[in-house]
Amino acid sequence: MNALNSALYLATILIWGSTWLAITYQLGEVDPLVSVIYRMALASGLLFIWCWLRDIPLRISTRDHRFMAAQGCFLFGLNYWTIYWSEVYLPSGLVAVIFSLLVFFNIINGRIFLNHPVTLSTVVGGLIGLTGICMLFYPEFALLSHSESNSNPNGALIGFGLAFVAVIFASLGNIVATRNGNTGISVWAINAWSIFYGTAILALIALVTGAEFSYGSTLEYSLSLIYLSVFGTILAFGAYLKLLINIGPSRAGYTSLIIPFVAIILSTLFEDYQWTLLAAGGFMLVALGNYIVLKRR
After folding, report:
1. pLDDT one-digit tens code per residue, 118-153
2. C-alpha to C-alpha distance for 179 and 144, rounded to whole angstroms
3. Which alpha helices (DSSP H) does the chain contain, by range?
4. Of 189, 215, 210, whose CA–CA distance to 58 is shortest?
5. How much is the pTM?
């Protein structure tokens, strides 16, 4: 890889690997749903300004608007809401590892919606990855379930369920994004509209559920919000999409192998994530499962 692609690769890994920890600074004082709305509204606004400054066309057909809304709903709306919610119950690094199942769900949904083939190595890699997730998840579930100070003994199970649902939402969003990316519309315009629709859908949910639109009083909340909007949503997506163009999806997909390593190292340093031998073995199996799938593809 040349210097530019190496820089894009490194930026994608470090930014997305660190966003899992940054999300934890958005939790506690503000409803997770509202925090996601703030993040996406800021990102969408900045993207529309960027398109305007660069004369990137924003006019699209009614049919394309519907698909942008679908992408926004799954990829930038429901996906991030359930991720934030899952981190209320689980360490950020553990959620990042669970989210690496996205590789397998993309293949399954690619088969269902895009008629992409599924190979034997994909099935084997998926089974290895799922086994690793179970090994990694069990110590955390046992720890939270037997903690006398834990007011919700089912918290680990709830967190896992939310993270698992987030993966499904993200995969469906990726399928729609594949369709949108093949229209010839600028990626910046696609993301601007998609994030806008995702924000609008979440705002509607917030109004229906009666969520309180408060704002975090700490400096960490504001700084993490800016970081997640500008770096985690705009720049990381831009870097990764550029990487897809330059080196292809197969090689770019290997970022999903390294991102959980970054996330769980940060979780160990800043959230005091407690390692066990079983968890370490599970983490390595997840990485191996991803490698087997990506190696073949």
Report:
1. 778 778 887 888 888 888 777 666 665 555 445 555
2. 41
3. 3-24, 32-53, 62-71, 79-86, 92-99, 102-114, 120-145, 155-181, 187-209, 219-226, 236-247, 249-252, 255-270, 277-296
4. 189
5. 0.87
